[in-house]
From TrEMBL:
Binds to F-actin in a calcium-independent manner. Has no direct effect on actin depolymerization. Acts as a chaperone for ALOX5 (5LO), influencing both its stability and activity in leukotrienes synthesis. This is Coactosin-like protein. Its main location: cytoplasm. The lineage of its organism: Eukaryota, Metazoa, Ecdysozoa, Arthropoda, Chelicerata. The keyword Cytoplasm applies. One of its GO terms (molecular function) is actin filament binding. Residues 2-130 form the ADF-H domain. Keywords: Actin-binding, Cytoplasm, Cytoskeleton. Interacts with 5-lipoxygenase (ALOX5/5LO) in a calcium-independent manner. Binds to F-actin with a stoichiometry of 1:2. GO terms for cellular component: actin filament; cortical actin cytoskeleton; site of polarized growth. It is found in: Cytoplasm, Cytoskeleton. It comes from Nephila pilipes.
Length: 142
């Protein structure tokens, strides 16, 4: 069970994903003993999907480009991953641990909990951001 987060490690990864000058589009935070640490970062969502296993819990901070052809915006998503083989006790603990992560990861457009790798796609994340993002008028094409 997590009782702490590596705030400096999470903050550095968080700022890297948010930076306009960085190619990093996601950062993955995992449990290491009783601490949540920054495990790795990357550019493509399929890379992130491959990092998640059925028997673990993890958090990810993801940059998504959303909007229509008239206005492309970068938005951010906080993901909580709970694999299908995670025990009931560990599942229950996720919400408490997420509060610790959110002390560092504070600015995001949408928060999602995913339990199936099939949910983790660029399209799914873009649609989730578009739903909370207000108007998307455009010209009817993307």
């Amino acid at each position: 069970m997590a009782s702490a987060v590596d705030k400096e490690g999470l903050r550095d990864a968080y700022q890297d994903v948010r930076a306009d000058t960085s190619d990093t589009n996601w950062a993955l935070f995992r449990y290491k003993g009783a601490e949540i640490i920054h495990d790795c970062s990357g550019e493509k969502i399929p890379e992130l999907k491959e990092m998640l296993s059925d028997d673990e819990r993890a958090f990810a901070f993801v940059r998504v480009f959303a909007g229509d052809e008239m206005s492309k915006r970068k938005k951010f998503v906080l993901l909580t991953w709970v694999g299908p083989s995670v025990s009931t006790l560990k599942r229950a603990r996720v919400s408490i641990d997420k509060a610790l992560v959110k002390q560092v990861i504070q600015n995001f457009a949408v928060e999602l909990q995913i339990e199936s790798p099939d949910e983790l796609t660029d399209e799914y994340l873009r649609n989730a951001v578009d739903k909370v993002g207000g108007a998307n008028y455009g010209t009817g094409t993307r």
